[in-house]
Design goal:
The chain is mostly helical. The protein is about 50% helix and about 10% strand. The chain has eight helices and three strands; from the N terminus they run H-H-H-H-E-E-E-H-H-H-H. Strand 2 and strand 3 (about 75-80) form a beta hairpin. Mean pLDDT is about 80; it is low at about 30-40.
């Protein structure tokens, strides 16, 4: 058992060594589907929960050695990708969404606009673009402060999200 498995499983390698194949299959039924043919497979583990019941993103190599001399089991090597995937997700959010409102930023807007224009040209279907201007916003920032202006932007963003479909 690798260090990643030890940290996720909350048990030592020696505890898992020699684990009965039936117990292994019961704990990882979808993994058995992957390795049941007795071939080595590089894959993620679907629906993996750690010893604390938390979902984990795992990557691993599984080799069914059911007829291997001295093994008669499944050799499993895992790598925990949970923190890496969380960091990638956060980088994506920072790159494409406004941190104050959570709405798409200019870069994501341009990308989506280009996509809609290309799709509209291909299909001949019409597309619409809505432009909003908050009249007097500068005055709110100047007289009530930036915190009030930020709160107004958050409320408008929340209102807008409630008015449009997710795919819009």
């Amino acid at each position: 058992m690798t260090q990643a498995v030890e940290s996720v499983e909350k048990r030592e390698s020696s505890e898992a060594a020699g684990e009965a194949l039936a117990a292994f299959i019961k704990r990882y039924p979808k993994l058995w589907v992957i390795t049941g043919a007795g071939v080595s497979t590089d894959s993620g583990i679907p629906d993996y929960r750690d010893a604390d019941g938390q979902w984990r993103d795992m990557e691993g190599t599984f080799t069914a050695m059911l007829s291997g001399p001295g093994v008669n089991g499944v050799v499993l090597s895992l790598r925990d990708l949970t923190q890496l995937k969380a960091a990638q997700s956060e980088l994506h959010r920072l790159a494409f969404y406004d941190p104050l409102t959570g709405l798409a930023n200019r870069q994501l807007f341009r990308d989506r606009l280009n996509h809609v224009v290309r799709r509209s040209r291909r299909s001949g279907e019409a597309a619409a673009l809505m432009f909003l201007d908050l009249d007097g916003f500068k005055r709110i920032n100047d007289t009530l402060g930036h915190d009030a202006g930020d709160e107004l932007l958050r409320q408008v963003a929340q209102w807008l999200e409630g008015c449009v479909r997710e795919e819009d």
